Amino acid sequence: MLQEEDAPCETMLNVVESTPMLSSLREAIKDLPRIRDALNNETATDTFFAPSNEAIQSFAAWGGYADFKEGLSKMFSNDEIKALVVAYHAVPDERLNWGQLRAKAAKGEFLPTALSRIFTNSSAALEVSAWKGDVFLKGVGSEARIVAADIPACGSVVHIIDGVLLPIDGDGELTPEQQARIERARDALRDEDDESMAPSPAPEAAPEPYGADDFDLTVEELDEDYPMEEPSAAPAPAPSSE
């Protein structure tokens, strides 16, 4: 009997285009071929924070526009600027699930974004924090909460958020908190660069292997190193089709 071929996996772009609560994002990126190609990469191992319909519509309303399409075209005067904002929502080469984000939030870590790679001397990183069981992402000009987590996308993962993350300040004035976050982000990225340039330490002796019956958790599920509050249930993934 012939085996059926494995069905192709859903890429991040497939998730955006097939999830009803991401239809505004689908509309926003339809004319951004480079962004679409990046999201459609089956071999990528990225994390993408996708703004929901309400997030994008609220963002347009905040800019004074009743129609989000008009708002996006007015607030982002060209596609390049829009693409840079979308890049601020992507963490390249790291597939971070809900549990891993909570662990990073407990340590107050920053996530280098795709925008960090474009502007290497900037603070284009996202701070991860947690509050009452929710995970928040804080940018320079805005923050957002994860409302649906762990939507698989080939080797990547998509999380839906309730806000649009801005790498610039919306009102043109940085508060002391925003200035401090920018400096912390710069320091965090600088420390990562320094660590990557440092010589690797000598490998330690491998621990004794566990037996097959010793535990049934995967490494990703272990967060014993990070003392945290009792975790709440992760948000349910959004449906991938109507």
Task: Give a brief outline of the structure.
With 242 residues, the protein is α+β, with helices and mostly antiparallel strands.
Tell me about the biggest sheet? 7 strands, mixed
Number of helices: 9
Would you identify the regions where 5 or more consecutive residues have pLDDT less than 50? Answer: 192-232
Biggest sheet: strand arrangement: 2-1-7-6-5-4-3
Average pLDDT works out at 74
* Number of self-contained structural domains: 1
How many DSSP E strands? 7
Q: What is the approximate shape?
A: globular
Explain this structure:
By secondary structure, the chain is an alpha+beta fold. It has a single domain (12-196), classed as Roll (FAS1 domain), CATH 2.30.180. Helices cover 34% and strands 16% of the residues. The chain has nine helices and seven strands; from the N terminus they run H-H-H-E-H-H-H-E-H-E-H-E-E-E-E-H. It has a seven-stranded mixed beta sheet. The radius of gyration is 19 Å and the shape is globular. The relative contact order is 0.17. Residues 192-232 have low confidence and may be disordered.
Summarize the topology:
Layout: H1 12-18, H2 23-28, H3 33-39, E1 47-51, H4 53-62, H5 68-75, H6 79-87, E2 90-91, H7 98-106, E3 110-112, H8 114-118, E4 125-131, E5 134-138, E6 143-153, E7 156-161, H9 176-197
Parallel strand pairs: 1-7
Antiparallel strand pairs: 1-2, 3-4, 4-5, 5-6, 6-7
Helix pairs in contact: 4-5
